[in-house]
Every structure is written in C-alpha cells, then in structure tokens.
Design brief:
542 residues, mainly beta, Jelly Rolls, eight-stranded antiparallel β-sheet, six-stranded antiparallel β-sheet, 48% strand, globular, disordered N terminus, binds (Z)-L-Arabinonhydroximo-1,4-lactone
Length: 542
C-alpha cells in the first residue's frame, strides 16, 4: 500500500516535471514572413538580424525587415524607394523587376545586391543604416544572369557569385534548363569584374534544372557554396558544396540536397522549399531562411513565403532541422530573447504623412498621383488601367492569409461613363477582380464586380448604387473569394459570393508573385480631373 502510494507520488512528480518541461519548450510558427515574400536573404550585425525579400514589379522595391529573435520581424523600410534607383517603366512585364536580393554587412556598410530583370540587370547599393537611405545603384558590367550575391573574404576581396543561364555566352545547355553558378572578383568602386570568371557548379543532381540562388560563406577556413536547384516550385531544393579556395573546385556534399520537400509529395502543409540563406546567431547556433508555399488543394494562393529552420553542424556538414529533415509549421524557438514587434492596427486611417510600408505601387510611380490629406487617401483618376503593363492609380498590399478580410470606405462621384474606382484584388494585369463604382451613362451609376481572367474582362455582377459613399469588402476563404458592399461596415451585402479565387493563384496566373489587395481608380483611357477618396482600409485574418 505504502509502496503504491510512493510510486504514485513519483508518477505525479514525473508528470509535473514533464508538464513543466513541455510548457518551457517555447515554439514559433512558420512562415515567419507570411504572404508574397520570396527569395529571403539575411545577415546578422551584433544582436540584430536584417532580412530582404524580392518584390518584382512592385514599388518601392525590396522590403527590409529587422528582428532580434529571427521569428518576429518588423519592416523598417525598403532598399529602393526613389524612382531614380529603380526605373520600372511602362511595358515591364508582370513578374519582372527585382529578383532575389542578397544582403550583407561589411566594414560599416550594408550591401544589397540584386537583379533588376528587364530594367537594368545586376546591381548593388549600399547604406550606412539597414533601413537606408541606400545609394543609387551601381550596375555591374558584363554580369549576365540572375540571383547575384556578394561574399567578402578575409583578405578584403569582394566576390560576385551568380547564376548564369546555360545558353548565355557559356557553352550551350547539355539538358533543358541547365544553368550554372559562377564566381568572379568584383571591384566595388567601379562595379567591374576583376580577373577570370569561374563556373563552379550546375547543380548537384545530374540533369538538375535551374542552378541558382547561390551564396558563399567561409566557416573554419572552408568555403561553402549553397545553391538552389530544381526550379522554384515543388521540385525546389537546397544543395551545398565546399572548397578550399573561393574559386573552387567545389565538391558537393554527399547528403545533397540538404533540404527539400520534393520527396514529400504535393499534398503537405509546405511545398516548394528552397532558395535559402543562413546565419549564425550570437550564441553560435545556425538558422536558415528559405522560401516555401502553403498550398490549398495544390493551389498557391499567397505566393512564395519566408520560412525559418534550425541547422546544426555535424563536423563540416550542416544538417537542416536535425532528426526531422524538413521545415515545420511549428518548431522550437531559437535560443534568443523573444522580442515581439509592435503590430500596427489592422485599420489604416490614413492619418500619417506618408504611406505605411505595407503599401505598394505597380511599377515605378514617376508622377505623384495620390495624396494623404485630412486623414484620407486621395487617388487621382488617370487613363492608365490595371489591365495594362503600366503604373496605374493603384495602391495595394500583400494578401498574407488564406482566410482574410479586406475592407475599405470610399467616397467617389464618377463624372463620366469611363470612370471607375474601388477595390482590387489581383495577381497581375491579366488576372484580377475589381469591385468598383462605375460612371453613369445611359444606365444609373452602379457597383460592378469585374473578373479579369487571362486578359478577358467580364462583369460578374452589377447593382445600381446612387450614393457616393460606399464600403467595399473582399473576404478570402481558401479557394473562394466573396465580395461585399454597403453603406456601412455592419450592413454589407454580397455582390459575389464564393467566387473562384484560383484566378489569383500563382498556378493560374503564372509568374513568380503573389496576390495583392488594395484601392484603385481609373478613367479608362480618358483624361480626368476626378479623384477617389479613401477614408480607411483594413486588412485582417479571421
Ligand atoms: C529567382 C530565382 C527563381 O530569381 O525565381 O526559379 C526567381 N527561380 O531564384 C524569382 O524569385
């Protein structure tokens, strides 16, 4: 009897110990940057971490984030926020623009190197502070290809490492989509290469398409080359090579690819894992960031997002998420002081002097067609349309959640039949929904839900709407969007219920970006002096 009691006490003690242990096991949730944030690159300066991601044809270019714990990130600016730095002119194709930046810190300067696809090529900029201001771009002469990165060696030399298309000057591709990684010394003062170009890899796997996203590191005297291969979708993977000299030869690791989800099938929580960069914490631990997709029935509804996973070195060999070997939706919190960031309210009342960092324009706005005044955002109607490859009067933010609600309150009096203003949710010029108040011609002023699919415009629903104040909303739920309107937030009616949201998926729209939701105004080819006034815009997940 007594013995039993003792063993019960022991059991209870053990249970309590376990419970304490379990509760002490702090975790974090992936993705660490939800919504369209592909091609992450990060660096550590002291106890601070800085990260940049691709922004393609959206302006300002390359958001910069700061974190103290690798989990909680706050946007502190953009690398390219002046039109002089980034000339994304009319005609620049959807999904072109800024691809795959790398951020590094060296001798008191932050360096960001990137490709301006279709608008200048490979360039770098520098800044004294991570949030900027960054310099005007220095375009690198005779640097073909994409995905540039910089490596500073101990002897002070700077090395460019990039991906070159196998058709481009180098001998032709031996198999479809064979790309190569090259390394060449770079003169940072002139943007000119020095010495020979070294082709160091075309991927680990034989027949591996798209060797890209290279980064070089030096650890304990050894050079590590980390690359992505397999292409940026479900076959994506990370491979690692080492060398004794920066220019190679680089030997692939035996356990390549060191990280991929390609063997897990497409019916899992995270696919497409690849394009990684890593960092050592001030405590000696290693972490990698990389892009991934949270699919819904195989559809990529949010674009490629940024994920975090631990690494531990087994001798010279980095093991990504040891014992697990894949990126998890929830994982052990890094051994760093948890530092939550102050979240901005979901609703933007437009009572600031400049737009919040979350807002973006399509291509470079070379003229000022919006104004923040009296706690309102005024958007001028211009002839440019959201269905053209231009800089339309459109201000939008990333959709970051599978279940979300975006609402705005607008005041707009269309003065002719070609005028429209309202809400837009879009991938690009050819795939979008617009919920807009349109002008009065022979018919009364009306609210229209317009679908643009493969460039073809169709009015899905319309309703006469005589007042000039309107609340517009889009609600996302997995593969469906619902569109609502009304005179106030609590009196909304459906104009379209559960319509097909896959129109705004990357699978259907193609390209490399994710969906954006925002405000839009156009006079559709005609000159206009009219404006639409937005009182507030709110975005939240539910
Ligand atoms: C990026 C490259 C890629 O430059 O996609 O397919 C490009 N691979 O790494 C855009 O993110």
């Amino acid at each position: 009897m007594i013995r039993m009691k003792t063993s019960r006490v022991h059991l209870l003690a053990l249970f309590l110990m376990l419970a304490v242990n379990v509760s002490a096991q702090k975790t974090f949730k992936n993705p660490i940057l939800p919504g369209f944030h592909p091609d992450p690159s990060l660096c550590r300066v002291g106890d601070d971490y800085y990260m940049v991601t691709s922004s393609f044809e959206w302006f300002p270019g390359l958001p910069v984030f700061h974190s103290k714990d690798l989990v909680n990130w706050e946007q502190i600016g953009h690398v390219l926020n002046r039109p002089s730095q980034l000339q994304m002119k009319d005609g620049l194709k959807a999904s072109w623009g800024l691809w795959a930046p790398t951020i590094r810190y060296h001798n008191g300067l932050y360096y960001v190197i990137c490709t301006a696809t279709g608008c200048g090529g490979n360039f770098f900029v520098t800044a004294k502070k991570p949030e900027g201001p960054y310099s005007e771009p220095i375009f690198i002469k005779d640097a073909p290809g994409i995905d540039p990165s910089l490596f500073f060696d101990d002897d002070g030399k700077a090395w460019y490492c990039g991906s070159i298309n196998g058709n481009d000057k180098t001998p032709p591709r031996r198999y479809p989509a064979e790309d190569r990684i090259y390394i060449q010394q770079l003169d940072l003062a002139t943007g000119e290469f020095i010495g020979e170009r070294h082709i160091v890899s075309s991927g680990y796997a034989i027949n591996s398409p798209y060797a890209e996203a290279p980064h070089i590191y030096k650890i304990n005297g050894k050079y590590y080359l980390m690359i992505a291969e397999g292409g940026t979708w479900e076959d994506h993977a990370v491979s690692i090579f080492t060398a004794d000299q920066v220019t190679g030869p680089y030997t692939p690791f035996i356990c390549n690819p060191v990280l991929t989800h390609r063997h897990l099938g497409n019916d899992i929580d995270i696919t497409t894992i690849g394009h990684a960069d890593w960092v050592q914490t001030q405590n000696g631990d290693w972490y990698a960031v990389m892009l991934g997709v949270r699919p819904v029935n195989g559809y990529n509804m949010l674009g490629r997002e940024t994920f975090l996973t631990p690494i531990s070195f087994q001798g010279e060999q980095p093991i990504f998420n040891p014992g697990i070997g894949r990126v998890l939706m929830e994982d052990k919190f890094p051994n760093l002081p948890e530092s939550p960031v102050a979240l901005l309210p979901a609703r933007d009342d437009f009572d600031t002097d400049s737009l919040r960092f979350c807002w973006n324009f399509l291509r470079t706005p070379f003229e000022r067609w919006y104004e923040l005044k009296n706690s309102r955002l005024y958007i001028n109607l211009r002839p440019q349309k959201a269905t053209e490859l231009v800089n339309p009067s459109l201000i939008a933010r990333r959709v970051e959640d599978h279940r979300f609600k975006a609402i705005t309150s607008m005041n707009f009096k269309p003065s002719s039949v070609n005028e429209e203003a309202g809400m837009i949710i879009m991938q690009n010029d050819r795939f979008q929904y617009r919920l807009v108040l349109v002008g009065k011609g022979k018919t009364p002023q009306e609210l229209c839900l317009i679908l643009v699919k493969d460039g073809n415009e169709e009015i899905l629903a319309r309703v006469p709407y005589k007042i000039n104040e309107v609340v517009l909303a889009v609600q996302g739920d997995g593969l469906k969007y619902s569109f609502l309107y009304g005179t106030s937030e609590d009196q909304l009616e459906f104009l379209g219920k559960d319509v097909d949201a896959t129109v705004c998926s990357t699978n259907v729209a193609k390209g490399f970006i994710g969906p954006f939701v925002g405000m839009y105004a156009s006079s559709n080819g005609k000159v206009s002096k009219n404006k639409a006034a937005f009182d507030w815009f709110s975005y939240s997940k539910y």
